[in-house]
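During the practical work, I worked with a single protein chain and the tokens that describe its fold, as given directly below.
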Amino acid sequence: MTKNQSLLDILRTSLKLGLTSFGGPVAHLGYFKTEYIDKRKWLDDKTYADIIALCQFLPGPASSQVGIAIGMLRGGFLGGVVSWFGFTLPSVFVLVLFALFYQSFTLGDANWIASLKIVAVAVVAHAVLGLGKKLAPDKPRIAIALVAALIMLLFPSAFVQIAIILMGAGIGYFLYKNKAQPKLSSFAVSISKKQGILALSILVAMLIGLPILASVFPYMYIQIADTFFRVGSLVFGGGHVVLPMLEQEIVPTGFVTSDEFLAGYGMAQAVPGPLFTFSSYVGTMMNGIIGAVIATVAIFLPSFLLIVGTLPFLSELRKRSSFQGVLTGVNASVVGLLVAAFYDPVFTSSILNGADFGLAVILFALLHFWKVPAWLIVIMGVIGGEIVHLIG
């Protein structure tokens, strides 16, 4: 396969995921596993798990970073760009249109939105079960996952999530540092360590320089770039955390009203792809199409710089038994975080009655046992939701 063919294949696959990956970051990992690992065999389960662990350590949208990393492993830096573009473009397009015409939209209580949430329950349950079998196959790792889930459910916050991951890393180091996997497959990445260090240096320079630039030259475009780059660099916990954080940055300044923000907030929950594309809606509200482009690029740029900065070191580090131990513990704690996220917000915001639960169980069974493709589950879920709504 030529490089151009490879990039086209990455674009086609990521665009498919961008059109069908409903349900938020946890569900995205399930869709990715089905498409990239189970179906296309672009990488093995262990490498996929290690990439997830790496991205959980980093600020920004973890599922988008996983997609970018897989694209880079498949097609170099351009592969990462193409993977992000395909996965992100559909939701950007919808949210920009919604920002332009939001006053004439009355989709907040639409039944198909509720149906998509039920689909997300089935997809996330499938993802948690599949990843749990791979990442927590023994009693010590199951214990790590259970404790992580319990702590996250009792004290839900981005800072607690970071603490849980660090806890898992420490426990994994002590329990598994001398249990290296001898046949661990390596992967090649066409990004050098020097380029990685340069990317991290650019990230730090922009974090320091953009606020100074925005204060010296108070132009709207610079302010948009500063705000969204800073949020994309510093937010831990993924899309569900970035929305309230953006509200604190945008609404008090008067860039958008509270009603405008909440309208976009609701729509962002209903579209496929990464929740960080909510920035496209806000950018459009602030300064039209150009504002949307600047906001979208600015909030995702830190993810590229972080992945380029860390991916060249991952293949070498994961060969060391001590680092394997760390990743083993982190992966187990990630399972616990996924369990917690499955309950809240996925389950609690989606399952409102027995009919919803019954539809979710049927969709899960079709996905898990009958191996129905995820994109078809989305269509069946919407149709099933309409039928349940008519019967009810």
